[in-house]
Sequence to fold (472 residues):
Amino acid sequence: MAQACSTSQGDQGTYGTNNVWIGYAYKGTAFNYYQGYVNEGAASSPNFDESFGGNQNNYTTTGCSVYTEQFSMRYKLQQSLTGSYTITVGGDDGYRLSLDGGTTWAINNWNDHSYTTTSITVSLSGMTNLVLEYYENGGSNRVSFNLVFNCAGSGSPTAYGASNVWQGHLYQGMNFDTYKGDVTEGAANNPTFDESFGTNNGNYYTNSCYVVTEQFSARYMLQQNLPYGNYVITVGGDDGYRFSLDGGTTWVINSWNDHVYTTSTYTATLSGTKNMVLEYYENGGVNRVSFAWSSTLLPVTLTGWTATAISDEQALLKWTATDAVNFDHFVVQRSTDGQNFQDIQSLPSTTRQYTDLFGYNGTVYYRLKMVDIDGQANYSGITSLVRHSNTTTTRIYPTIIENNIIFVETSKTIRQARLEVFDMNGRRLQEKEWPALEGRQQIALTGLPAGAYLVRLSDIRSPIAKQIILIH
Fold:
């Protein structure tokens, strides 16, 4: 340990340049016996993380090797630095950093300890003489240096992209800490993308600054008008990712934790304008985020759907629709619990409104069933309104019958109910009875030729409803 190297090279004083440090190696923890020099950093970045090949190992220099117990290193770099920087130095054991050639120490952790790091943020202007000193006393050995330019991103970090092109907002820090600028992803014909950020632990450039691709985050935003259809959306990431259709209020995909590259899929029937947000963060190691989708467009696009109470007994349902291709008809459905829906009227594809006669106290829910010519059906969203009724509504419908099916619907329970069908001469042709009739019932009219008929519904005391129907 008490011998210097007879073949050591370097003068122990020259500074490295162009991001490449010159590191002078010594036996002893106090720079006792000079052995030779090494280089750290690269033309693209002065950052490095050195473990010297392992514990109790011979570390090669330009002169003699250094045994990696009780040794020390002095790294020197002269660099032009202008602006705000965050510098992080780490070591096991002691380390210290000077910005003025070793006169003062901006970071000083000069004692035995396991690997720790210290960070400072400084404003620099012009040529800077960086000196990083390190010693190892025993056990593990490691020293690291990281320099980040604190560039402020320009642009609006809340702006959405459009026309299949995402606006991506990049941040240093895993929780959208320091805004660094914007990038775009996707293309005019497809919003799909798969981004690996160039390299692990490197510089990824935005329109303003770069982010170091360790411990960073990104928020991609796209406002998209979706044609009515079935969509399969797949998002992937290493590490965390999550995806929203409502600007980040809720997350339909959420894998917000550290993991290797994985993907998650969301399938839904969608239409209209969606504020899509894909968020991503990287903690360490590999970095990658991806978005892909596929869609099957449906035969009609519903662009409006409302329910309005026009009296205690009537609700006006109105809708607007476009892009009706291979479309057959609408079916209006009603529910009093928001889950179990009943068909109340089938309507041609050209119809855009319907008045529902239904007396009810409480919330009534409506939705549209949209049926293609091949029988495939899709559904609108649910709309609702609160009804207030002190009267009983009972009705028999429809008035024009094509499939020998009629419906009886009542808003209260009718005890000992009887349904009778008469011809126009008053002869009773068909009869059906119930101990209790409530809600909506379907009745098949059998053996009746085309013509006009009177249908009457009664309880034990008197008639409740009458309707003339026409069978085609």
Summary: The mean pLDDT is 90. The chain is about 0% helix and 60% strand.
